[in-house]
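Notes, p. 3: input format for complexes.
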Amino acid sequence: MTSNVAHLPFPALRDAQIHPPMSESDAQFEANRCLYCADAPCMQACPTHIDIPEFIKKIGSGNLTGAAKTILKSNFLGGTCARVCPVEELCEGACVLNKTERPISIGRLQRHATDHLASKGVQPFEPGEPTQKKVLVVGSGPAGLSAAAHLAQLGHEVEIWERKELAGGLSTYGIITLREPIEVAQHEVEMVKALGVKVHTNTELRDSNHLRELAEQYDAVFIGTGLGGVPQLEIPGGEKIVDGLEFISEFKTNPEFALEPQRVAIIGAGNTAIDAATTARQMGAQATVVYRRTPAEMTAFDAEYEFATNFGIEFQFLANPAEVVTDDKGNVTGLRCTRMKTVEAGADGRAGVQPSGEEDIIIPCDLVLSAIGQVKYDDETGFGLNLERGYFATSDFASSGPLSNVFAGGDAIRTRGDASTVMAVQDGKLAAEQIHQYLEGK
Ligand SMILES: Cc1cc2nc3c(=O)[nH]c(=O)nc-3n(C[C@H](O)[C@H](O)[C@H](O)COP(=O)(O)OP(=O)(O)OC[C@H]3O[C@@H](n4cnc5c(N)ncnc54)[C@H](O)[C@@H]3O)c2cc1C
Ligand code: SF4
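Output follows (442 residues plus flavin-adenine dinucleotide):
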């Protein structure tokens, strides 16, 4: 599976985009291919149920502002989702034109409309009639921003608390620049602020006592704190491994980021692993993703795997990291891996793996990144809320503990299914409706 890929030039790739913008004539052509289906399957497949035929029709008639408003009414983070959604699995995958020709490029059309609105500086919506109710939103990722935007339109006074320096959650710190430049996420934060929402960054919800106090001070609290960093890997030399998420985040947000790796090994097989490997490639390094199972068990989307191989990322499957190898000065020189083989599938239907007995391999590298998922919550970190398998336990977004005015959504409650931006946005919207009902005493 390995090949000799020449180092890619860093500056050319830093500003590249996976889905480049459309020209007006391309957008018109694409919009006019749409059949404007009744009961449009694309719309059903969108977790936020954007009225896709309606916004495409508006693009076709030259009403780009109207198209953007149609999108943002259902999905306040439509600009982000146009770039990061796995459209092949969602709207475009469901488009009826798949049966006869290529599907409509819904994601790129959505970007065309939302970019237009952003370039005009138009604020799509107004705050609602004041209700005198105060809501605190903790976390400014897609779930928190979406909840805040909808609550403000319902007339509630909303504050967001964000522990980091910049708002936007993983859209700002996690998703690679090739997919979403930081400016897009920051523009969405500004749109939320324009609805009167106060965003306090470098401000953290600390613990269960703090949450109890806040639940008394505010009429309702929404927790959209996502998940934590990448868990530590307990192998010899493991202390040399760098958190893949931190690596992406530093590259995105720190202009003084000083690492200049030549060859990077990335442990994991999900979207974070692909994104960390892509970032390494953007820096001009060779990147090898190391996974102990086979391609069939990877959690990264198919389109991302295909993108990664086209981007020159190499893969070592059936290789289980066993030791970070260093030279006598302590510099990383390789990742030693045990060769694995597949064995019969277990109850979950996933093929098992066990050591094959072959000789270990050493993947030469000067940097090892870990991208094996994100840390969940426990009794110490879970703000005193009831947990289900490390996520906040909720029923219709209401937390299941004694604090009846505390709600939660986004990755922090995603006990089942793939975590994605669009799911977090939909959680925020639905949770805002539940909070509104609660505040209205219904
Ligand atoms: C590397 C990577 C790439 C991804 N790529 C994609 C993609 O291409 N497409 C896609 O759809 N999805 C992608 N995802 C998933 C997507 O980013 C998440 O599902 C989404 O961001 C979840 O939104 P959220 O608001 O629940 O949480 P987050 O985006 O994680 O936001 C949570 C926010 O809460 C803040 N916070 C946490 N604790 C506290 C506290 N105690 N006090 C105050 N603030 C706090 C955090 O700093 C953060 O800003 C990716 C994820 C990763 C890690
Ligand atoms: S399914 Fe395809 S053709 Fe039909 S409305 Fe949606 S985008 Fe248009």
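The domain at 134-228+375-439 is CATH 3.50.50.60 (FAD/NAD(P)-binding domain).
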